[in-house]
Design a protein that fits this description.
Order of helices and strands: HHHH
Helix content: over 70%
Low-confidence stretches: none
Strand content: under 5%
Structural class: mainly alpha
Mean pLDDT: 79
């Protein structure tokens, strides 16, 4: 599942970057002083995305240890689809 999630993130970033390449190029070349800030902000967003993704494991383990294990194993793909849908926002 992690490979699918990372592949989807790479696809979204690639499409957004390609769609806004001229703006991104102008942004990086015109104001060099902001380049470091932009790169650091992008790294921060990447770390935040991974932290939020890893937080799902805590919920997954907690639910699997509860009485809802059978239902959770059967329907947890729904949560995955919701997450994949919301990644665009």
């Amino acid at each position: 599942m992690r490979l699918v999630y990372n592949g989807a993130l790479i696809a979204v970033v690639g499409v957004c970057f390609a769609a806004n390449y001229s703006t991104a190029k102008a942004e990086f070349t015109v104001k060099a002083q902001y380049t470091v800030q932009i790169v650091l902000f992008m790294i921060l967003l990447g770390v935040l995305a991974n932290v939020l993704y890893c937080a799902a494991y805590v919920v997954d383990v907690a639910v699997q240890m509860s009485g809802y294990r059978e239902s959770w194993v059967k329907y947890r793909w729904v949560l995955f689809l919701i997450g994949m849908t919301l990644r665009r926002f």
